[in-house]
Amino acid sequence: MRLPPTGDELLDRTSTGTFLFEGEPVQFLDGDTVGSALFAGGRRVFSRSFKYHRPRGLLCCSGQCPNCLMEVDGVPSVRVCSQPARAGMQVRSQNVIGSLEHDLMGIVDKIGGPFTPVGFYYRTMIWPRRAWPLYERFLRNVAGLGRIDPHAHRTRRFDTEHRRAEVLVIGGGPAGLAAAQAATGAGRQVVLVDEGLARPAPGSDELPFQLLAPARALGIYEGGLVPVDTGGVLIRFRAERIVVATGTIEQPLVFPGNDLVGIMLPAGVRRLVRDWSLKPGERAVVLSADDRGLEAVDDLERAGVEIARVVDLREQTPRQIEARGRRGRLKAVTVDGETVDCDLLVMSGGRQPAYSLLAQAGARIEYDDRRGIFAPTGLPPNVEAAGSVNGGGSASLPSPAYAGSGKCFVCICEDVTEKDVKRAIAEGFDSIELAKRYTTVTMGPCQGRLCHLPSVRLYARETATPEAEIGTTTARPPWAPVSLGLLAGRGHEPARRTAIHHRHEELGATMMWTGAWRRVHSYGDPADETRAVHKGVGIIDVSTLGKLLVTGPDAAAFLERLYPNRFSDLRPGRVRYSVLGTDAGRIMDDGTLARLADEQFYVTTTSTGADAVTEWFEWWNAVWGMGVEVANVTGALAAINVAGPRARDLLARLTELDVSREGFRYLDAKRAHVAGVPCLLLRIGFVGELGYELHCPSPYAEYLWDTLLERGADLDVTPFGLEAQRVLRLEKQHILVGQDTDSESNVLGARMPWLVKLEKDDFVGKWALEHMGAREPGEQLVGFEMTDGTVPAEGGQVLVDGLPAGRVTSARWSDELGKAIGLAWVPPGLAREGNLIAIGVNGSFEYAAVRLRPFFDPEGERLRA
Amino acid sequence: MSFLLPCPTCGPRDVNEYVYAGEVTVRPRHDPSLRELSAYVHFRRNVAGVQREWWFHRFGCEQWFQAERDTRTNAVLRSELVHPTRESLAAPEAPAVPDTPAV
């Protein structure tokens, strides 16, 4: 039922539509919200309360209170009073078992009171411990509002935008609009953010400033950062000046029965009557501590509501106010013993400035005794407050709570009663911050908008402490409710793919993550792949290796200062392995360094270390100011390792380069064309067989890969993945930085003392290694082979006398050796060839023999073949 | 943290574009004692006030630079590229916590 049309209603009565509520069609007019359409259709109960499941109806109609939370199109906890209605919407109630009218959980309100006092969840459902899974299942079912599907996938796209504003005005009421106009007049670039509840000003499309509505500022952060929720896009504004014009929030009165359906704030009445031409009730009582409530009388009269009684709390100070109802609906109000039948009660307990954003920006919040509100003072520079947010609230103090019988709610979000607050004080929660956490007052959906001031005032009365001393709880972002999806932003999972990635997919490879890279785990059978590398020839895509070019007259000196070994004596065309360390002597990364020319080195890093190593090099260069340039060419170049006893046969078919044993020695670096592709060839042997790393420009890599497979078909050239490589390198006891080392590992413990040239004048980590070398050796990284063939878990323990004394970092079964092998950190005393160590396996232990030399080809004959 | 940090080459940018690498320390010149080495490797002054620190503009010009920042307010007083020849930048502060017992 609508009132006759008026000029200022938001409705277009010629345009109607239908959405579904609990599967039933509901008619709406253009301009309706979901809430107003449901109200027009006769619905009065909009939700069930958090704890007692009491019926709740429209209260503020301005998106502040928790009373109209419903699930809209699968999104839980939408405030339907402010959610514009659209045809076809699916609207459902939440937090009920049954229906809004008959909620089975309503029993909690009838008989649950004695069992659910404040803080009951800290005291009950603890014993017996064994029953906890049962309790938990029950609690998870009944706790919280709304449901989300934990297994759901993304259904919406959210984005983040970055913008600047000279002046950002938050709030589009009269004060905000005036501030925006004034700033625009002064020639500033202005953006106005408004929740969209205010009516569009006439001619708003000609506004001289940018208007963002509906949009909500979520907080004010350091550096003038204001994230604004505009629906699907989070705009991160950087504002030079911020004007906060968030106005005030109407406060409820605290009396028994103050949550009954039919009790409203003046704004709720105003919006129902003026915006949607709805009659909010038949017979009304008005209780008001300021002019707002009295203004509502005009709206009620206009809507034809009978005014039964008006109580101005500034003139009359009742000792008792009590509302009674049936089935949760208001039936009568008693003031000082005098009962009036009514179905509508308009209450106004004054207006509290919405200061939260100012507090986040750094303003002090102080209690104003005269006006009975908290108001902001001491604004930080570049932040201003405009309009009633400065403290335009009530000029009288209604009682913090009125007497009567029945539940008297201080916080309707969390169903906290006056009795709960008193009990918390009696239990010793005398600080407002502690009491907040214990009672959960202000922690519900309204975030203190309706309950902060009443709860502080009640505390003040009960503890006989002035409000100013009690103070406020900390105002934290977000100020407005926001979807987690919006904060998460777009679903980014950045993946780096090598230039040969698609070939791997065509071969049916199983891919895995290494840092941001997608790499091949295997192409099917890792055992076949290792065998191929040992017996014939395999190829592996190693494009993920970090690749740096270090160029300049000081290049050799620079690298000598960064790495523990020498590079000044490395001849052009030769390669040297090294481990990068910190001044604490710890291992950071490893790789090979090839001297391309007198003043140029080609440095490889681990697959995940390229960026960190580049930054490390650049930083030291900023400190030392040496004559070198560092260029990270990781993405520009691809790399393929061709390894196995027949690698030479394959390579010889594709290049004119002399690849003979004498012409291309182990640890040589040469430039040549392979299959017509310009390559840098490094003869190194991470996997323990004769091998050549071919580094070429990325665009040619797929062609090079294809050609290797084609021309090597009769050699049974086999692509192999990371799993095979892990076995192969383990057979050689080649370490993987990050797998076999951690942030505490050093090269001495990793048994690579031959890398360290302490006679050098200086290098990063030299002093730490000197001190380490002078001390008793620490734990050592050793190889081991299991005596019974069990493969222990990586991360498993090395046991001495049944106690953990070391750990396994790598372990695999090697077909080639017919043994289970691995690497482990052990106490120095155990690091002797052949020593038996105990390794934890499945709750027990098995023995393993320590091996200090590579398991496979210990003399490196195959590498140098 | 959401303050703006002025990059010497790119101008003021969101602090999330940078890598913070801690306060500027002085590397001992030659053969430090274990105590000196420990102080250099492990200890920081951690002042509540203005400190000189290293930043790297990872999502920008990829330059290392030094900034003077008030750690209490995150106000950045100045930032500049480093020229190692300028002694004033190389040794800004006394060594950190020299009195701490050696490990």
Overall shape of chain B? globular
Could you tell me the mean pLDDT of chain B? 84
Class inferred from helices and paired strands of chain A: alpha+beta
Query: Can you tell me the residue ranges of chain B where pLDDT is under 50 for at least 5 consecutive residues?
Result: 86-92, 94-103
Give the C-alpha Rg of chain A: 37 Å
SSE sequence of chain B, one letter per element? EEEHEEEH
* CATH architecture level-2 label of chain B: 2-Layer Sandwich
Q: Which topology of chain B does CATH recognise?
A: Folate-binding fold
Rg calc of chain B: 15 Å
Kindly state the number of beta strands of chain B: 6
Helix content of chain B: 10-25%
What percent strand of chain B? Answer: 25-35%
Question: What is the CATH topology of the domain at 494-545 and 637-744 in chain A?
Answer: Gyrase A, domain 2
Quote the distance from N terminus to C terminus of chain B: 34 Å
The total count of helices of chain A amounts to 21
CATH uppermost class of the domain at 494-545 and 637-744 in chain A: Alpha Beta
Q: Give the N-terminus to C-terminus distance of chain A in angstroms.
A: 95 Å
CATH class of chain B: Alpha Beta
The major pleated sheet of chain B works out as: 4 strands, antiparallel
- Extract low-pLDDT stretches of chain A: none
